[in-house]
Amino acid sequence: MTGIDYTTPGPLTDLSAVPPAALTGVPADAEGIIRLAHTLIVHPSETSGLDLPEERFADNQLRHADRIVAAVLRLEDDPLHVPRPAPRRAVGTCRNFTVLACALLRWRGIPARARCGFGTYFQPGQGLDHWVVEHHRDGRWVRSEVQFVAATLVPHPEDLADGLFLTGGEAWAAWREGRIDAARFGVPGTENFGPAEIQGNAVRDLAALNKVEMLPWDEWGRMDAAYKGETGADYDELMDRIAKVAAGDDPADVTGLYSEPDLKVPEALLR
User: Fold this and answer.
1) For 12, 56, 80, 163, which has the most beta carbons within 10 A of its beta carbon?
2) Is the pLDDT at 86 greater than 50, yes or no?
């Protein structure tokens, strides 16, 4: 395990403002926490027929885990472990599922981190924009689905096999080495596919490794220029460095690279 303390919260995963009573009954084991987080959020794509008021979809924009919990408690003030039907869950993306699980794991003192990248198990031959959580167990990082932990997309969603999920850095390295087609990697339901989408997730994943888990559409540094095709070889080389550092998982390298102006999340985005 790396020297970064993944048992403690970052700026977006601090649950100290959550009423203690709400956390009574939260499981003590990683898989139990992941399965609990799965039951607290509903993805926008799964809200058809639920007749939710339009303002509920603003929960999709919540960056902070304690605010996600607050959104859940506004709908039902029972402790989080009490089962909730889909209409009584906060609306959120795969990132919200993941960040909530990550926050609860850290609250229980379990080393955890969010990862931003692409799932290869949704559509054959495609890598689709996605987030998963990692927790440290038996000397290794275990990657787990949160949004689809109860589904049958893969044999063991609680312990994803190698290659099923690629972080942004892993996808970038695979494209640079000719092992994937970048045109098949991007955001489902949009035209946003290609190398720039991989670059964006590589930057977000580096931030997440530094315990800063941003929204899927947050942009900073040269990300907007990259999406517009206005960056060049130097930015590609910066992505190469992200891929290498993320794969190496050395804490000094992870924090050192993140400190560069093009990569560090501005304080204004953390409010």
Assistant:
1) 12
2) yes
